[in-house]
Amino acid sequence: MSAPQAAASPTPLNIAQRSEQSAVILTVDGVLDAGNSGELRDSITKATFDEPFGVVVDVSGLEVPGEDAWSILLSARWQFETRPEVPIVLVCENRAAREAITRSGVARFMPVFPTDKGALKAVTKLTRRKVHRGEAKLPANLTSLRESRKLVREWLTSWSKPGLVPVALVVVNVFIENVLEHTNSDPVLRLEVDGPTATIAISDTSSAQAVRLASPPKGIDVSGLAIVDALSRAWGCVPTSSGKTVWAIIGPENQL
């Protein structure tokens, strides 16, 4: 009988860091896989710690096995420790890869450019925009439902976005309900308003990903995430070092 084979060790990534125009530039080479994705996520997160002008991640030399794998970059954006006010942008010389990044939804939060020059110019523009942010850690009990709705209403009203309140309340209620039903976590609520859109994000400590269930063959699909899908521009779930973050983007066209 042959000896059992040892589990393959994670493939190392080469991540080089330099500074340019007060921004941190990370250049990543290697093959992205499940074993080293955390290394990339943590490197991007740490690059925001000193609050640089921005973080530019050059992924031109990164080999990604499948289009969905690009979404690991979003986990750095939604890490609890990441400085949300520090813009993160991507550089990728390969046009097909840039298109894949865009299709994956990553570019919604991390714009992608073909050159460092374009990315640094974008960082300058992004740091000048006015983004409103609110964050709160809530208890792992039913009072979080009422408190999250109260906070979302107060924040959006104070930021002159009352038209987004009705849909935002539905979305945050679904997300908090899911955390309370499926985890033992204290949910962390984050709300960001950037121009006409708002992003609602809920983080928890469970690694189980939020997945929309298949629609029933007959009748109306009234599952929580089906409602979020119908009411938002986009939504998703990304793993983080402490669990996961579920997010949704809503705009003025999203109405009840």
UniProtKB/TrEMBL annotation:
Ranges for domain STAS: 13-123
Annotated signal peptide: none
Gene3D superfamilies: Histidine kinase-like ATPase, C-terminal domain, STAS domain
Pfam families for the chain: STAS
InterPro entries xrefs: Anti-sigma-factor_SerPK (IPR050267), HATPase_C_sf (IPR036890), STAS_dom (IPR002645), STAS_dom_sf (IPR036513)
SUPFAM superfamilies assigned to the protein according to its UniProt record, in alphabetical order: SpoIIaa-like (SSF52091)
Protein name as annotated: STAS domain-containing protein
Source organism of the structure: Mycobacterium bourgelatii
